[in-house]
Specification:
Elements lengths: L5 E5 L4 E5 L17 H8 L4 H14 L10 H12 L7 E6 L3 H13 L2 H10 L17 E6 L6 H27 L1
């Protein structure tokens, strides 16, 4: 793998470069919704309803795959993946510590079930069917699970990350085309 390889991920408002010469970048993280101004203001005022509402939506989105009685990280990871995909996310990366059982449970479920058909079912069970044409065809949605022990990622993980970015980019382009037709 080339040492000077750079991956560029962009949205309508931001472009991020990922390469070995630059620091690690967190593109988006929704299980703990820090960084949103309204959340920070609410937390400062002692109001935690925003986080509670997000957590409930995530658990409901994952409830068809994993029992909500199994509390903790796994249901939040699965639920947030289904809750966020296609609005606003074009792909989901689950990064967890090496050997973390909740992360492995979520990875096993999402590797098997992270499809447009399951997203349609999840949306239907939660009161609404998304009108995105992307969901009409059965397909796997961009997902990558990575375990880390703090060391640099091996080449195989870098290759998987590049493939994931390509899949997410293609999905993003399809989403933009679908919105342009509306």
């Amino acid at each position: 793998m080339a040492n000077n390889l750079t991956t560029i991920v962009s949205s309508a408002t931001k472009t991020v470069e990922i390469c070995r010469d630059k620091p690690t970048v967190i593109i988006g993280e929704r299980i703990n919704p820090t960084g949103r101004k309204q959340v920070l203001a609410a937390f400062a005022a002692g109001d935690f309803e925003i986080a509670r509402t997000d957590a409930i939506a995530q658990v409901e989105a994952g409830a068809t795959m994993l029992s909500p009685r199994l509390t903790g990280e796994a249901i939040l990871t699965v639920g947030s993946a289904f809750h966020e995909i296609l609005h606003p996310a074009c792909g989901i990366i689950a990064i967890g510590p090496f050997g973390c059982m909740p992360n492995r449970v979520a990875e096993a479920i999402l590797n098997e079930k992270f499809t447009s058909a399951e997203k349609r079912a999840s949306a239907t069970n939660n009161g609404g069917v998304p009108a995105l044409p992307i969901l009409k065809q059965d397909r796997r949605l961009p997902f990558l699970a990575i375990e880390t022990d703090g060391n640099a990622f091996p080449q195989i993980i870098e290759a998987r990350l590049e493939a994931f970015c390509l899949q997410a980019k293609r999905l993003h382009e399809e989403m933009l085309q679908a919105r342009a037709k509306d």
